[in-house]
Every structure is written in structure tokens, then in C-alpha cells.
């Protein structure tokens, strides 16, 4: 009777494990075969199931970096990646590598400053509805990496050459929580924008306080300088 009881217990345990294994995607086995730790593979597979990332989005560089990362660090990085706004990220593999690089830098800074280092406060993001409206109105693209947010370049339907010397303007002293939804309307008052590159700080998630704006004409760039935008 005891043997039967143990057998039933073993069956119950296997039944508890089995449903979870059935929930794994077809790519989970590929992650294990690639050499990723099981916990990391499960976390990554869970991200796949959200639809924010697909296995084909990750190249060998990103997978190798995850494989070499300490398990706790990799789980932390994947959690940050999942919490990130990836709507305008075209290269998710490079973005993930950027998150890992930032995690290493923060870890090194924390080890030198001691355990009293305050946690990073999540940065206020842009108004996505306003950005979506701008992109729909202009037809421009927005490409986000951990180091910059690039709007445009070239404008839709542009058949001329790339704007030359004198068309690019450096814009400093930008509030750290200001994004394209507020910047683009200001610069559009001066002329047609070729591209806008807002430089980002991966350590804080805010902008670095400056951007580069290229206009399609020198007159527009000069107008921006005169207005001290």
C-alpha cells in the first residue's frame, strides 16, 4: 500500500511539472540546445510568449552574451528588457546587448560605491500617443537604441541629396524628460526636418540633455540658431 501511495505521489508531481513543460514554445528547446541556463531559457521563452520578442530577433552575439552572463544578472537584464518600451526599436538584438552593457556598468559602479547606492528611478517616458500622431502626420520613422532616438532621415519622398554643411544644429540644455513629442513641433517652426537625433543615457534612461537636428536647408538651420532652440 505504501508503494502504491509513493507511486501516486510521484504521478502527482509529474503532473505538476508536465503542464509547465507543455506551455514552452518550440524555441525553448533551441535555447537549451544553444547552452543557455534553464532559468534564463524559461525567462526568455516567457518573453517570446508576450509577443514583444521573437527567437528570430536575436542573433548569435546576443545569445552568446546571455550565455556568458551570470544567471542572476541575465534574469535581471531580461526583466529590464521586458519592461522597456520596444515599440520603436528596430534592432532588438542590439538593444538587448545595450541593456546588458548598461547592467555591467551599473554593477561595477555599485561595487565601487558600496551597497548604499540608490536604485535608479524609472525615467518619465515620452507621450506615445503624441509621437504616434506625429509619425502618422509626417510619415517619418523613429528608431530607438539604448544610446539615441533617431527621428527621420530622409523625409518621405525625398529625392535630393543629403543636406550638406551648415544644415545641422546642435541643441543643448534640453530638459532630461523632454522627447520628440515636444521637440519636433518646436523645430518644425524653423523648417523641414531631415532628422533629429536625441542622445540618450543608458544608465538613467533619460536623455543626455542635447540633440542634433539636421534641416533640409541652411536657412531653416539658421532660423533655429537665431531662435536659440
Automatic annotation (TrEMBL):
<dbReference type="InterPro" id="IPR000504">
    <property type="entry name" value="RRM_dom"/>
</dbReference>
<feature type="region of interest" description="Disordered">
    <location>
        <begin position="107"/>
        <end position="126"/>
    </location>
</feature>
<dbReference type="Pfam" id="PF18360">
    <property type="entry name" value="hnRNP_Q_AcD"/>
</dbReference>
<dbReference type="InterPro" id="IPR012677">
    <property type="entry name" value="Nucleotide-bd_a/b_plait_sf"/>
</dbReference>
<protein>
    <recommendedName>
        <fullName>RRM domain-containing protein</fullName>
    </recommendedName>
</protein>
<keyword id="KW-0694">RNA-binding</keyword>
<dbReference type="GO" id="GO:0003723">
    <property type="term" value="F:RNA binding"/>
</dbReference>
<dbReference type="Pfam" id="PF00076">
    <property type="entry name" value="RRM_1"/>
</dbReference>
<feature type="region of interest" description="Disordered">
    <location>
        <begin position="1"/>
        <end position="23"/>
    </location>
</feature>
<dbReference type="InterPro" id="IPR041337">
    <property type="entry name" value="hnRNP_Q_AcD"/>
</dbReference>
<dbReference type="InterPro" id="IPR035979">
    <property type="entry name" value="RBD_domain_sf"/>
</dbReference>
<feature type="domain" description="RRM">
    <location>
        <begin position="167"/>
        <end position="229"/>
    </location>
</feature>
